[in-house]
Design brief:
By secondary structure, the chain is α/β, with parallel strands linked by helices. It has 2 domains: 187 residues, 3-Layer(aba) Sandwich (Rossmann fold), CATH 3.40.50; 114 residues, 3-Layer(aba) Sandwich (Rossmann fold), CATH 3.40.50.460. It is built from 11 helices and 11 strands. Helix 6 packs parallel to helix 11 and helix 7 crosses helix 8. The relative contact order is 0.17. The structure holds 6-O-phosphono-beta-D-fructofuranose (F6P).
Length: 328
């Protein structure tokens, strides 16, 4: 398995894309596991920007103390425009070499893994950990940050339920997720929504929402929650506009926005982050490079980045139908 010169002696860690609660726990785990296996560890600041600028700091065992419970990322994050160009990737690869890094751990989502793939093609060894509240990394059932964001969204919807119940109103709530409905669907089920609209599923506003609200009214229900994934065209604002035009419905729109990205990471996110951080270092020690760490059937595994980024995540039909079955 590889030769002696493939041994990783210096590891750079970066977080990239939207921050996600639990990224710090992953940094902590990977940093400590790497140090324990004899590597030098460097924290690269502001995602791929830090690689381009040579902006990195040596991390010790203690540098990552007291961060397991912190949201955000101590390394900061960014979406790096320059890194999207071939020139930028080449420059980043040569910067990694000048910084003396043998490998880079990328903690982020699909977009960041595309970056890692390009970097690996320029000869930099990489490993990736899925961390995005969208939970849309194709090859992994779980991405760090999802559970915390979900609980934040559900708590917010619970609060909205109090006020919409008091006023006999309908609350149309927009949940993040980029082009994915994972967060919205789970939030809808956990918050007992009357309807959930996600980009992956075609909807008929008359059948799927207006009729549901009319039925609800007939059955004596005076308030409703409708969850709209931000990836649905026009988002919650457009759905509300259409509903108002179709029926005399008293509704309010709430966009949960970046609130969903912050906060103390849940126990599940800390646990998954710790497991993935340690596993990522293990793959490097086994000299298996350019991998995405993933959860499949509840267990940790890994895929080549190339294979992983091309995998598509299917929404569970069961999940959607179960939610709809008990919505009224
Ligand atoms: O990918 C995480 C996410 O929060 C998405 O749900 C959302 O579409 C996007 O990032 C928002 O990005 P920004 O923080 O750049 O506004």
């Amino acid at each position: 398995m590889g030769n002696k010169s493939d041994r990783v002696k210096a590891l750079g860690i970066l977080t990239s894309g939207g921050d996600a609660p639990g990224m710090n726990a992953a940094i902590r785990a990977a940093c400590r596991a790497a140090i324990k296996s004899g590597m030098e560890v460097y924290g690269i600041r502001r995602g791929f920007n830090g690689l381009l600028d040579g902006d990195a700091v040596r991390l010790g065992f203690k540098s990552v103390s007291n961060i397991i419970n912190q949201g955000g990322t101590i390394l900061k994050t960014a979406r790096c425009k320059e890194f999207m160009t071939d020139e930028g990737v080449k420059r980043a690869a040569s910067a990694a070499k000048s910084m003396g890094l043998d490998a880079v751990l990328v903690i982020g989502g699909d977009g960041s893994f595309q970056g890692a793939l390009k970097l690996s093609r320029e000869g930099v060894k990489t490993v990736c950990i899925p961390a995005t509240i969208d939970n849309d990394v194709g090859c992994s059932e779980y991405s760090i940050g999802f559970d915390t964001a979900l609980n934040t969204a559900v708590e917010a919807v619970d609060r909205l339920r109090d006020t919409s119940a008091s006023h006999d109103r309908t609350s149309v709530v927009e949940v993040m997720g980029h082009t994915s409905g994972q967060l919205a669907l789970s939030c809808g089920m956990a918050a007992g929504a009357a309807a959930v609209m996600i980009p992956e599923k075609k909807y008929d506003i008359m059948r799927d929402v207006v009729e549901v609200l009319r039925q609800a009214k007939k059955s004596g229900k005076s308030h409703n929650i409708i969850i709209v994934a931000e990836g649905v065209e026009g988002g919650a604002a457009r759905i509300a506009e259409v509903l108002r035009a179709l029926d005399d419905v008293d509704l309010r729109v709430t966009i949960l926005g970046h609130i969903q990205r912050g906060g103390v990471p849940s126990a599940l996110d800390r646990i998954r982050a710790t497991q993935m951080g340690v596993y990522a270092v293990k793959t490097l020690n086994e000299q298996r490079f350019d991998r995405i760490i993933a959860v499949r059937d509840g267990r940790l595994t890994d895929f080549s980045i190339e294979e992983g980024v091309n995998m598509k995540k299917e929404l569970s039909r069961d999940f959607y139908e179960t939610s709809a079955e008990v919505s009224l």
